[in-house]
Amino acid sequence: MKMASHTGKSLSRAFHVAFKKSNHNHVKVKNICCIGAGYVGGPTMSVIAQKCPEIKVVVVDINQERIDAWNHEDLSQLPVYEPGLDKVVAQARGRNLFFSTDVNSAIEEADMVFISVNTPTKTYGEGKGMAADLKWVELCARQIAEASKSDKIVVEKSTLPVRTAQAVKDILHNTGNGLNFQILSNPEFLAEGTAIPDLENPDRVLIGGDDTPEGREAIQALVDVYGTWVPREKILTTNVWSSELSKLTANAFLAQRVSSINAISELCEATGADVEEVAKAIGTDSRIGSKFLKASVGFGGSCFQKDILNMVYICRNYQLNEVADYWEQVIKMNDHQKVRFAKKIIKNLYNTVSGKKIAFLGWAFKKDTNDTRESAAIYVADYLLSERANICVYDPKVPKEKVFTDLDYLNTRSSEENRKLVSVVNDPYEACKGAHAVAILTEWDEFKILNWEQINDLMLKPANLFDGRNILNSSEMSRLGFRFHAIGKADK
Ligand SMILES: NC(=O)c1ccc[n+]([C@@H]2O[C@H](COP(=O)([O-])OP(=O)(O)OC[C@H]3O[C@@H](n4cnc5c(N)ncnc54)[C@H](O)[C@@H]3O)[C@@H](O)[C@H]2O)c1
């Protein structure tokens, strides 16, 4: 792949004309490398490989265990659980989809390199607890520069603070053996739990790049990849900064809707209104729309909180304090909702949970994923454990050790103590047996069809049921004898 490096205005115009003439013949991507085989890199690249059999896609990661799991013969052992992912992997893996730890070879061979590594909130130094930690992105840029022997298009797939592409460009241009690198921003909008349908049929694909002939050529190369299966009118192209900021903005708006309806849920509980009725009434207004109006114990996941905090940090850097305060409130409301749920459990168990068994149904941050990052369950559990509750967890997809790692990570108490107070079981009925209360933390479909009568029989009385996801029918549950507490509804 050769990229032109004309700089003069007329030369640029001449190039643009030539570019337009030959247009699609310019850069045809044949080899893709994706750095980061996580919840985004794995599913995204699997779908690209499935849809574009003529492109070789190599997904690399420094985590050997993760790569081994991606290569596991038994598809139920893939490191990411997503409905339909196993079939996509089965179709493409070994054909044109490969998972490897040989990062340098994959970079060298590729004409397009995606950066899909984690960008968590910083846990140290300046910006601690707010800014995105770009350590892994910078390492990727340096490794791309070092391993490259030909020009490359580098695609930011990770969610990044606006203007990160400048830093990536700077590193590549200063350490990259004089090669040409075009930087594109292509944020991912998939939602965990529905990643495969989201990737197969996205609302839109966003690609940001430089408004130069080389930039437009790179954009076109990526448009062509997605164009294999995504209708062209759904592929939006913008400048790099707009693309980077659009991802942060999308997550901020989505999270804001959840915090807004959760705020109303508290008002419903105080007034006797029903949050589901309110959500329906406002959601039918086409200006508001019905999605993301489900009241709950609070949002979780690796993205919403991290991306809003990151945006708040950026705003503060530009001294936009009112803007920062506005968005920070979305996080504060979410924290409040989790604490409120925990306090409600305590209050209804006669103001003490010490030594009492509380069953947690669900640990993942939402249904149909095994991801637990920032899951509301972790924080509700932590609050109750500080009140010396005994918690018994059942989640259909989260392994036992993950529950303990999540709690240990908070550093609230020793890991021995966490193991003493918490147990994890493989059967929901066992979790509920002898419990003073059952709390639903994740909206797994299977919880709706449990034998709730049997669960009531297994529990100590009065049997308190806290539905943190509003998945059960309140009249039915109170008919079965539960003291039923939903979000945003009067207790039954
Ligand atoms: N999870 C989501 O739903 C989602 C959705 C949209 C965007 N994003 C964004 O995508 C990015 C990745 O998220 P994720 O959920 O896939 O994270 P993840 O933690 O699941 O995966 C990241 C992977 O990158 C690997 N990695 C880190 N540094 C590396 C290096 N130098 N070389 C090779 N591998 C390296 C890690 O080992 C890890 O396996 C983040 O910026 C996130 O904000 C996530």
Automatic annotation (TrEMBL):
Domain of life of the source: Bacteria
Keywords: NAD, Oxidoreductase
InterPro entries tied to this protein: 6-PGluconate_DH-like_C_sf (IPR008927), NAD(P)-bd_dom_sf (IPR036291), UDP-Glc/GDP-Man (IPR017476), UDP-Glc/GDP-Man_DH_C (IPR014027), UDP-Glc/GDP-Man_DH_C_sf (IPR036220), UDP-Glc/GDP-Man_DH_dimer (IPR014026), UDP-Glc/GDP-Man_DH_N (IPR001732), UDPglc_DH_euk (IPR028356)
NCBIfam families according to UniProt: NDP-sugDHase
Binding of NAD(+), residues: 36-41, 61, 66, 117-121, 158-159, 192, 303-306, 373
Catalytic activity line of the entry: UDP-alpha-D-glucose + 2 NAD(+) + H2O = UDP-alpha-D-glucuronate + 2 NADH + 3 H(+)
UniProt record similarity statement: Belongs to the UDP-glucose/GDP-mannose dehydrogenase family.
Keyword Hydrolase among record annotations: no
GO process annotations (BP): glycosaminoglycan biosynthetic process; UDP-glucuronate biosynthetic process
EC number: 1.1.1.22
Binding site for substrate: 188-192, 247-251, 287, 294-300, 365-366, 469
Domain named UDP-glucose/GDP-mannose dehydrogenase C-terminal: residues: 359-474
Pathway where this protein functions: Nucleotide-sugar biosynthesis; UDP-alpha-D-glucuronate biosynthesis; UDP-alpha-D-glucuronate from UDP-alpha-D-glucose: step 1/1
Residue positions of the active site: 303
An example Gene Ontology molecular-function term: UDP-glucose 6-dehydrogenase activity
UniProt-listed Pfam families: UDPG_MGDP_dh, UDPG_MGDP_dh_C, UDPG_MGDP_dh_N
Full protein name: UDP-glucose 6-dehydrogenase
Function: Catalyzes the conversion of UDP-glucose into UDP-glucuronate, one of the precursors of teichuronic acid.
